[in-house]
Amino acid sequence: MTSPSSYDALQTAAATEPPRVGFVLGSGMGLVARRLERAVSVPFAEVPGLASSSVAGHSGCLRLGDWLGQRVLIFEGRLHYYEGHPWESVTLPVRLAADLGVRVLLLTNAAGGIPDALVPGSLMAIRDHLEWTRPYCWREPGPGGLGPGRPSPYSARLLEVLQLVAAKKKSDLHQGVYGAVTGPCYETPAEIRALQAWGADAVGMSTAREVQTGADLGLDCAAVSCITNRAAGLSGGPLHHEEVLQTAAAQSERLADLLEGFLETC
C-alpha cells in the first residue's frame, strides 16, 4: 500500500504496536522481506529525509509487518555514501528505527571475503569493524589503528544468539571483522593487503556507521555479511556487481532462516 500518506500510516501502525526488532537488508537480499505478513510498505522517497536508492539490488522500501507473530520493521535496501548521500542520510534509517520503537537491530550486507575460508556463499557474523570511511582513519578508535580502544558496537549477546541459531540449524556461520570503505569502486589488491594486515576478514561499503549510530542510541546491534565474492586480487579475475547480486540472492533463503531463528531467540 503506497500513497502520499503511507509513512503516516506506518507511523500510526508502529505507535499502536511498536516493532521491537528491525532488519536492514543489503544488496540482493530483499527476498527476506517477503516473509512479512500484513505489511505496510513505504518507498524510501516517501519517508522524510530519505531518497530512492540508485543501486541495483536495493529496492529502497521500508516495511512494517508481522513475522512469527512479532511486529518487525525492515529496511529493504539502504542508502550509501558513494551514491552522493551525506552520512546523516546514510544513518537516518537507524534513527528512524529507534524512533519507531526498535530496540534490537540486525543489519546485513554483501561483502568480499579475505581469508581463504570465506568463500562466496559464506555467512559471517560481524564482531567488530574497521572504519576506513574517515580521513586519517588510522587515528580513529577501534581495531587495527593507532586510536584509543573502544567497546565493540556489536552486541556480544546477539553474537551468541546468532551462533546458537546457526548451530541449531546446522548452518556454518563464521565470525570476523568487517572493513568498511566508502566505494563506489572495488578495492585494489594493495588495499586488501592493508585491510588484511589490520585484521579485516571481509570488506564492504556500508554497515559500520549505521551500527555505530545504533549503539550510540542504545540499541542492541548485530550484523551479518553474506560473502558474495573473494576480495580484490584474491580471485584471479575482475569483480562485478552482478556476481554480488547473484550470490546474495542464492543465499537469501538461508539468510532468512537465520534471521527467523534470530527473531525467535533474541
Protein model, in words:
This protein is of the alpha/beta class. It has a 5-stranded mixed beta barrel with strand order 5-8-7-6-9, surrounded by 4 helices. Helix content is 30%, strand content 26%. The protein starts with 5 loop residues before the first helix and ends with a helix. It contains 7 helices and 9 strands. Helix 2 (87-99) crosses helix 5 (208-216) and helix 3 crosses helix 7 (252-265). It is globular. It has a single domain (6-265), classed as 3-Layer(aba) Sandwich (Rossmann fold).
**What is the count of structural domains?**
1
Radius of gyration: 17 Å
Helix content: 25-40%
Strand content: 25-35%
The total of beta strands comes to 9
**CATH-level-2 architecture:** 3-Layer(aba) Sandwich
Q: What is the 3D shape?
A: globular
Q: What's the number of helices?
A: 7
Write down the CATH topology: Rossmann fold
Short key terms for the protein model shown above:
26% strand, alpha/beta, five-stranded mixed β-barrel, 266 residues, 9 strands, Rossmann fold, 7 helices
Map the helices and strands.
Layout: H1 6-16, E1 21-25, E2 37-43, E3 61-67, E4 70-76, H2 87-99, E5 104-113, E6 123-132, H3 156-168, E7 174-181, H4 189-198, E8 202-204, H5 208-216, E9 220-230, H6 241-250, H7 252-265
Parallel strand pairs: 1-4, 1-5, 5-9, 6-7, 7-8
Antiparallel strand pairs: 2-3, 3-4, 5-8, 6-9
Helix pairs in contact: 2-5, 3-7
